């Protein structure tokens, strides 16, 4: 019994939208979907990773671009607040380390307090800048300072007067030189001795003067030591006076801050250190040293001493808001932060106030999302990320230090504790490379969120998909889609999935189609998107990318590519192939021919010999050779050598989807029976002749249908496909209509013998017990010719 072609209802599955309420006429009546449809597996993985707090449970999200990976994760994080009461967020600030300015300290403050603390310190500095000069510029301070100075002067004067009087009584004058040194001179009455008058003295008198002066010098040196001690005591008393006044000023100004932040341990300790440091650096506020003060105030934003600034690195606007950071350009500096340099009066310098946050700082306590390929492309980023996740600390070091180059001034800021979830988005190839070449990857990214490419198609999923379409419409402020437009988009999604029973989850394709459909509808002044607008948008999409298809089809119009779609021919069959560009696929038929010559049974693959055939195609030829040998060479070798080729193929051939077509051509060459040229075939086969599914079945059928239109249609034209590909059929409507009218046929076969029967119109034959086939069958005719050659 001949095999019947498929009916038109098998070629296209219409979206009946049985899951939608009959009252729903458009997306206006649908509740937009607030989650990504069909990604339950990936969503469960994300939920698990976000719930577990242990180290290493970061996420690698796998899937093609356009599946909505980032959108799904963002919607989940925004809808299910992982923070709750289980984790506290903090503000992070850098401040000066007064003991070692090269190692700035980090302050941990409750969320939202960072900027207020910075402002409190600025206000404190403003008060001190005004209060210090006032405290040291008043009568009380001056009187206390003058009293100390007078005490010193009185003691100095009394001691020197006593020495002077004692010297005068012994005939020696005490005077001070212009250089400030003390000088002892022997007196001749009221005048100092000259050299002549001193020489005129007796030796005893001269010796007496020398002894007296020596004694006075010893006494003077003791007095000078006392004067130095008294000056030191005065300096200490003056400093103590200044410190007492400074303590009063600082203590008065800072006590409110100490009370306000007494429960924040880091701030409490910092205020104590700052209190001590201010007392040691009063001159900054009193402007005693102009150069030092100038550098102290060399700020980029406010006029206050740099050493007392607060650098708020991370400020949480809302302590209950879960930090979510998306890093679009994951360079070393953008992730880990960096330290700027400032120039003041030609001098380049840096300090803690020039430390800038990276995305890891901002995401601390939350989630950081990045593209895996971009992370791996940037130097040192991947190693730095692993180091931070292993240590659970965020060390801010310059890139120059990472590459062993020294910067201008090197800082070593205190590390910040890191508690963050990293989500990398990437494809399977990148995931496999990391798994294979980086042993640390498995330890740091223990959760894989695997995103599906498609989902089962049923009434429930169609209803979800309709709501997904409604969400795109609402989010982008588009015209609403009517019921037929929704159905057509769902059918388009099924076509994208290459399966009647599935829907594509490539949300970017659906969103792009909707945008273009909305444009078409608005351009025609429509108030709602209808199915005709969807069709027009799809035609516009195809028109933009189908230049190569038009060029190939033109070769059939001009006869450049030889193809017969009307007659019969021996050893010749029309096969179907798919030609792909970066964003478009289309089918085009090609002619396969087989010739035979006396030989030892080999199938000579011309494509392989010419290095135009790929490995998979060569495997297909070997399989069909094994099939032919199993049918016709069980007792003796096949006495024919077969030459097999794709005619007018110059760009290479790969894949095994032509193996059934090649078998049909070879059987025709063996038997001499002509094959119908108005039928094309696609499908691979195994060694038992069973038809196996292939890809691109819709494009292949459409390609042959179009060529038949170019060459001239006849009622017998059609295509043979594997039965296992029937569920992949989502053909163009013109082909469905042609099949329903009997103008085109599509046969679905399970074995290559069925294809041979359709091509030749003769039965293949069933093998008898002795291994012979009936003589009036195709295989019987082949067998008789081969036996004749063997004899």
TrEMBL record:
GO terms for molecular function: ATP binding; ATP-dependent peptidase activity; serine-type endopeptidase activity. Pfam families: AAA_32, Lon_C, LonB_AAA-LID, LonC_helical. Belongs to the peptidase S16 family. Keywords: Coiled coil, Hydrolase, Protease, Serine protease. InterPro entries: AAA_32 (IPR041699), Lon-like_helical (IPR046844), Lon_proteolytic (IPR008269), Lon_Prtase (IPR027065), LonB_AAA-LID (IPR046843), P-loop_NTPase (IPR027417), Ribosomal_Su5_D2-typ_SF (IPR020568), Ribsml_uS5_D2-typ_fold_subgr (IPR014721). Gene3D superfamilies: 1.10.8.60, 3.30.230.10, P-loop containing nucleotide triphosphate hydrolases. GO terms for biological process: protein catabolic process; proteolysis. It comes from the Bacteria. Residues 213-247 form a coiled coil. It catalyses: Hydrolysis of proteins in presence of ATP. This is endopeptidase La.
